[in-house]
User: What shape does this take?
Amino acid sequence: MVYFQISPVGFDCGLEKQNCSRYPDFCKECVKDKLEKLGLNLTHNIKFTIIDSEDKRIQMFQDLIWQKFLDVLNIKHILIMAKESGLALVDYPISGAGINTELLTGFIQANITFSESSTTLDGNGTYGKNYQIYEFQYETFNILLQNGQFIRICLVLDHNASDSLKALVNEFLNDYESVYLDKIGEHIRKGKMHFEDTIDFIMDTFNVKLVFPMVLTHTLLPDELDLIKKNPIKKAIIDFAKELLASKTFFFIINLIDEVQKVVHIDANKILYEVYNLIEKNIILPTTIETAEDTISNFQETRAVRIDRNELISSIIANEDEISELKEKAKYMSEEEVRSSINSYLRKAETAEKGLAYKEAQNEYEMALYLASGFDFKDEIGRISFMVLELDKKIKDLELEYALKVGEKAEKRKDYIKAINYYKQGLQILKNVQDLNGHESQIKKLERRISNLQKHL
Assistant: This one.
């Protein structure tokens, strides 16, 4: 017999609170009775949360989806290792963080050995309900690692893991070992096996597709059109998505939220909630899902035709001869040659990025993404997409630093108009990314500075 635990589950009792004499004192008992009549086993401790309005229910989901988004933005690399040998079973880079997994696995093994040999774990390691959880620093990254019965999972993060991400890791570990128990057992008995076929499970669990490039479906049903027209936020999302797609092949959720917020002044989590609903209805599509390609096109294109029709992510590549040559060459390239070319572009991009030549780096990244999308290399699309996002963040940081420095110099010269102008540019950059990076105090400080300078005019 297979036992399923369903969490969290929502239940509509069917009554308005003003019409129920038992609300709110007996809600828990009432709901338990109704669920047990449906055949659900409620013998274990369960948590009841009363959400007594539609607004509260929607707010709960908005916050939940927003946290999922922040969590996946934080993840740079996912490693799944055999617990006994320390061998990497799945090595899944989400961004271009440049992690040397061999050095990392050795570092992890040393830390685990040291922690387990101690009589007590220090502040960097704690014991969870079922398995050990470890948190420590590696180079400039934060490591979240949890042991299961047979495997361990390691997340390489930009920032400390949220409580929700820790809970998700624990849930993933239990599910992964249960679903792939036979495969793990074969590995333990016979040695190395291929675990690439488990990557989709990993992507789904950690919501990796939220950071993939997105496109719009080519076909909207009449009821879907009506739904969009009746919802101003959804309509703004679709309109701005179309604008982004007019000059680019893909768009990212982050950029879409930014564009919508410029006109519709509402919280980012509310916009993401509507975007998420459109993704679930297959109106907004992650470009790496094969079924999405079937929705977009009613026929299978050959590889050469798909490459020929593929377009650049942006218009920054000025050398049309270069892209025309690549487009023609790609029609006759093998997968091995394409992967080699992608890696070559990525190496050039990383070199340019280290030399602060960000435009050149962006050019190389997008050439690599052009090839990856044309050949439908799912892993590369996701990884390079994250590299583009990271580079975009660096460019914004550079623009912010420049605006503030020029503003400060102008202020010292008492050129208040110029100072205010550049401070406002910096303020706009901060506001565009405040939901993701938390710049509230810096924004308030800059707003006060602008206000004080305006008194001199």
Notes: DSSP finds 18 helices and eight strands in the chain.
